[in-house]
Design brief:
The complex is a heterodimer. Chain A is mainly β. Chain A has a domain of about 80 residues. Chain A contains two helices and eleven strands. Chain A has a three-stranded antiparallel sheet. Chain A is globular. Chain B folds into two domains: about 140 residues, no CATH class; about 80 residues. Chain B is built from ten helices and four strands, in the order αβαβαββααααααα. A two-stranded parallel sheet of chain B has the order 1-2. Chain B has a two-stranded antiparallel ribbon with strand order 3-4. In chain B, helix 2 links the parallel strand 1 and strand 2. Chain B is globular, with a radius of gyration of 18 Å. The chains are: A mainly beta, B mainly alpha. At the A-B interface, strand 7, strand 8 and strand 11 of A face strand 1, helix 2, strand 2, helix 3 and strand 3 of B.
Amino acid sequence: MILDKPRVRRDEFTRRTGWTFEPEGACRGDLCIALQDPAASHEPLPPGPGDWLDAELLARRLRMPLVHDERAGLWCLGPESFGSVLQSAEAPDLRLPTWRDEPFKLSSLRGTRVLLLAWASW
Amino acid sequence: MWQELREEFAPQGLEIVTVALDLKGVETAGRWIEAANPRHPSLIDQAHLVDELFGVINVPSGVWISETGMIVRPPEPAFPGRPRFADAPIPDDVDPYRAEVMRTARRIRIQPERYVAALRDWAAVGAASRFALAPDEVLRRAGERSEGRSRAAAHFELAQHLWRADRRDEAVPHFRQARRLQPDNWTYKRQAWILANRHQAPSELFEGDWLSDVREIGPENYYPPLDM
């Protein structure tokens, strides 16, 4: 996720990564990770949908790389560095445009088997 | 070749969805799609989302998805038949780098017969196919997300963002970092090389090039063997 400050909106973070925020912390599937830093005395309140989250805290707790390019004035929060490359065996709902620039989502083919083929002209 | 297979499989309830990985999008992928005149969905992935979401690290890669939306085979080399590079004659007037690329490409392992036979079986019997894997096996085969791999994804995303914004000098170090951190991700490397040289030959912008990097691992290891 490209950020212009080391912070990210909760709803955008959830949309991109699948992590939701519950009283226990950040959760996805059966896994919940407390967001409390070991030094803090209280668990922070779950943020509201439009709230900004501290990208450095998320990076530490969810083991996500936070790459900072000072010259470009940008940060990038990468995927968590644990578990399987696939978040689960359930296919993500890939949303991309067709080559004629029409919107397409993979879930529109539910009920049909799909061979998803990645290719490149290079 | 995929178009013919698509017509064979569609009546059996199997659809093909192609995804073109290309930072330049329709500008470079469009003419290939137009020439193929596909009847199946043909998508454009300028941000390499399928790398991030499905773990694709080389092309062509196929992912099998069941009627209920479960992945039953994670990314693996997917050839519908023998590609042109496997047998194409080397023209006399081609430059030495290209000639060596063509000679090396002929030694790449490709297994279209096995892949298409497995696909036919899945098209015919669906979940009863022995090639359709259980969720645990799908996750095991997809592999672990290491710190290097995650960090490479972040650098690659920054690189693409900056390149598209015409901030190329700032993009280059991030393309380089992505290659260093995840050297087996050929989509990261090839996407960078093609921006500097249309033959993915050595350039001043990027480290490595297709021929040198393939020689380093051996062309027979460019694609993993199919585990059917």
